[in-house]
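Hi R.,

Here are the chain sequences for the assembly we discussed:
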Amino acid sequence: MQMLAYLIPVSLGLGGLGLVAFVWTLRARQYEDPKGDAERILAPDWDEHPKA
Amino acid sequence: MTTAISACPACIAAPAAERLASVPDAPAGPARLVLSLPTAHCAACISDVERALLAHPGVSAARVNLSLRRVAVEAAPAVTAPELVTVLAGIGYEAHELDPDALRMTETDRRGRDLLMRIGIAGFAMMNIMLLSVAVWSGAEDATRDMFHWISAAIALPTVAFAGQPFFAGALAALKARRLGMDVPISLGLILASAMSLFETINHGHHVFFDGAVMLSFFLLTGRYLEYRSRAAARSAAEELAALEVPRAHLLRDGAEVEVPIADLRPGDLVRVRPGQRMPCDGRVATGASELDRSLLTGETLPVAVAPGAVVSAGEVNLTGPLEVSVTAAGRDSSLNRMAGLVAIAESARNRYTSLADRMARGYAPVVHILSAGAFAGWLWISGGDVRLALNVAVAVLIITCPCALALAVPAVVTAASGRLFRRGLLIKNPTALERLAEIDTVVFDKTGTLTLGTPEPEGFAALPLATRQVAAALAGASSHPLARAIAQAAEGLEPVAVEDLREVAGQGVEGRIGDSRLRLGRAEWLGVAPGARTATWLRIGAAAPVEIAFTDRLRPGAAEAVAGLKAQGKRVELVSGDVAPAVAALAAKLGIADWLAGQRPEDKAAHLQALASAGARVLMVGDGLNDTAALAAAHASISPASALDAARAASDIVLLGTDLAPVEQAVKTAVVARARIKQNFAISLGYNAIAVPLALVGMATPLAAAVAMSLSSLSVSLNALRLR
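And here is the predicted structure of the full complex:
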């Protein structure tokens, strides 16, 4: 049962990490154009170096 | 739209959110332009458009949104939208300027993001609590169970407080209005379950409902988000249609011409309206002679001649000569906008329509409250005053009857049906449109611009001698009058003949000369013949007798299929038009419509619809003109093509995006299926309740049973809706 003292915080922490990531994607407006983003990944424009 | 929102008990929270969102984003710095890109569809399109725009001097940023088929451009104030449209046309992309003010994208976004955030947090909490609950269900005891309950409480209480806000606000508003919406039992369930579970946790109880409360808010929020999204998609597309007509007028100021927004026009101003342009205001012709196309306002196909002193109204199209018009009423006072007032009155009547979901909520909410109150009283009496036990049972009843699946039943179906219709080119604007469409038994069509395209086609032109056709084409090419353009189109591919002294006489026709023979193409009176009943133009070559070229209005593609399909479904089809009787009769005969009315003024049309309604008919009105607007608003359900006037589109529930009329018939079919699915969904969720509620009433509903019932019913309802796609 001692394990619970570690496992519960770990599971909550991992979940929280996911939540933080979700909040970030929402704030960064990553759900505005799902169709466009799906196509953009195929464009070779920024293959050599990232867009400034 | 605001009245539409308050008609739905689920959306009481909307006004507050909208007020919040109406704080304008300061457009400081570079100008923001929005262009519509109807043909963009792939990764190559994105890079092409963005690269071309960024290469244009003054443009600092360009971003394509493929979901909305738009590109947002940030550029120096000197860069104008027509300039960018030309740039895009140069690389082969069709683009249209959109009015950024009419789009108000931020408002729609903010509400959606707010709901998504609440869903995300509820989802996170639900999964974590479920993890702990599984441990409790599989037999955690004493101190371990207490600890798990405490951790659950620490996650659930803030989550319910945050994620439940839309429901609390809705319940509060409903209570203030002294009625019970769906939000009241939802809020009561959430609050009581949380409070009771906290009490049980403190007192080392066995059963807590934290998982149920959080799960409930997650599913309910999902239903609300679906509902919001289908409405937002329709609204943004409708806004886009409105934004396509960037309202500008050519104002004459001290003899010079300036382009100004229509809102800036004042009575007494002088505006210039070129051939092909729409009247920006009501007014009186000061100089110039021309012909006006009034078909959108009155349904007449024949152009009307105007001379100085003639009264013109906003929305009419100038055809032949440039006009200078003195403004008598502009913007909100113009006849075009006064018509919008008429529409608003009729719309408020439509918003009194109670949707299936409303009717369900009205009957369901009291039952929920009575059941749980009864359970509390019953167990209090059976157990001899054990308040804790009685409360536990009452909370279990509330949680289980809480309308998880009911909240998903309608939005899931509406989302699937709207998606299906959107792919066929129909845009659902009103949330209850599908239900009303499913109930109709009579369809009333307008003629000009709805069943026909409103563009004339010469009749028997190919049968004329070649020389005559060539001369007609040469003369017609000099004018932008719709009849002339129709001749030019019909004569396409003919060897042209050279005509000298080609001259257009405004309001009359075109004249010219080949050698010694004088040529005229135009009005009957101008050529000295008596005008007939049909729409026609006359051609005289030299001294020969004038030849009549008659016109018919071209049928809209799919019109025949739509009429035939609706009749096959057992609907009564009528044709009501403002045009003259012979033209209406001919079209009615062609399409096999037995009931038709001609020469109807806008008031007559609306009165006819009211007469039908009071006779018990449920009417679907399909129309496009300003003369149809009142009728569209008065009908049980209404559809207008995208080519319709703004006011007509605003008054209708559904907008037809393509030219084809055939989807109208499919829309009615889909609506009937959608209503059947909604009813099935109600049956499914009530079926689950019929099993779970008795269990809860006898005190056998554990948190596990509640969780299983809730997720199973929500899933089956969503899957049933998906069958519609």
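Chain A touches chain B through 25 residues (CB under 8 Å). The mean pLDDT of chain A is 83.

Let me know if anything looks off.

Best,
T.
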